[in-house]
User: Which sequence fits this backbone?
């Protein structure tokens, strides 16, 4: 293919138009959304700060659990200079999300997007307060989807968004935007000393958690009272039991009077399923107990003395 000199001359202009379009998009996100991003100062045994964002006009603000957990006093600073004391509505260390509230009305706010619709490579814009520098913008792309990250509580957070939009201490709890100025994630962690590897909890997870916190002030998860460890299954058991998993949870201990105790689980049992879902690790069980309703019966698939058996159990509120 032969490219004419006229076409060659047009390439720099095309590049310039693309860069101008990118700059206008990023700048537009900032202009539309920055007034809804707040700085959060926390006073406890060790004072600290983070970020958050207003998502209702009557003062509800999303941030990270690790920013506000255990706080004795929370102060929110807006870009217009206002400083208001906030109330902790509730937090969920298992997803590193928290909800706080300030007694103000008619606030500028941002909307939560459908994080299931984002794609690798699309623009990602972060606004926050790194090292206390209020309302700082960084931009990049969605680097990967579907990551898993372990929260400070030890549970896995699923469907984590990875981005190369630069984040630093103080960005925690701030919003990650798409090009339409909608929140696709809540910035939560960076890998140090790596550069360009940052993570956000997806907005769909935030929607579920915020709904529960607004209604109840806490997240209810199922509890069965088992202490266990991940173990590989002998190949003979996998073959004879026609099991599609090669590992399970070995029951190492059972809390007295717990659902597991009442259901007749025994030390040495190996849990490999719950209802029609496979369980190959403790993380799988945590996921199931998070998603299932408390107080309803479920059937555990258990390997006991080299034989497959079934145990009916009713999770309690944790």
Assistant:
């Amino acid at each position: 293919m032969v490219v004419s000199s006229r076409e060659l001359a047009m390439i720099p202009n095309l590049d310039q138009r693309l860069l101008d379009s990118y700059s206008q998009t990023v700048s537009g996100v900032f202009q539309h959304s920055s007034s809804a991003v707040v700085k959060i100062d926390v006073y406890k045994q060790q004072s600290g700060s983070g970020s958050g964002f207003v998502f209702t006009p009557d003062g509800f603000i999303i941030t990270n659990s690790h920013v506000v957990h255990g706080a004795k006093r929370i102060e929110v600073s807006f870009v217009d200079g206002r400083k208001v004391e906030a109330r902790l509505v509730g937090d969920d260390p298992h997803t590193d999300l928290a909800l706080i509230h300030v007694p103000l009305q008619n606030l500028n706010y941002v909307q939560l997007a459908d994080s299931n619709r984002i794609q690798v490579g699309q623009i990602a814009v972060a606004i926050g307060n790194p090292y206390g520098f209020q309302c700082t913008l960084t931009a990049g792309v969605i680097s990967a989807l579907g990551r898993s990250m372990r929260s400070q509580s030890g549970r896995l957070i699923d469907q984590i968004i990875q981005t190369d939009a630069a984040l630093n201490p103080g960005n925690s709890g701030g919003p990650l935007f798409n090009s339409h100025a909608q929140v696709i994630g809540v910035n939560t962690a960076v890998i140090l000393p790596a550069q360009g590897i940052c993570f956000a909890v997806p907005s769909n997870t935030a929607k579920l958690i915020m709904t529960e916190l607004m209604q109840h002030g806490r997240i209810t998860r199922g509890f069965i009272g088992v202490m266990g460890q991940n173990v590989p299954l002998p190949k003979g058991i996998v073959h004879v039991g026609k099991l599609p998993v090669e590992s399970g949870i070995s029951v190492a201990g059972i809390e007295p009077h717990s659902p597991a105790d009442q259901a007749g689980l025994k030390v040495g049992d190996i849990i490999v399923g719950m209802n029609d879902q496979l369980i190959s690790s403790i993380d799988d069980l945590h996921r199931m107990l998070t998603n299932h309703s408390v107080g309803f019966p479920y059937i555990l698939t258990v390997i006991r003395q080299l034989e497959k058996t079934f145990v009916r159990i009713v999770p309690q509120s944790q």
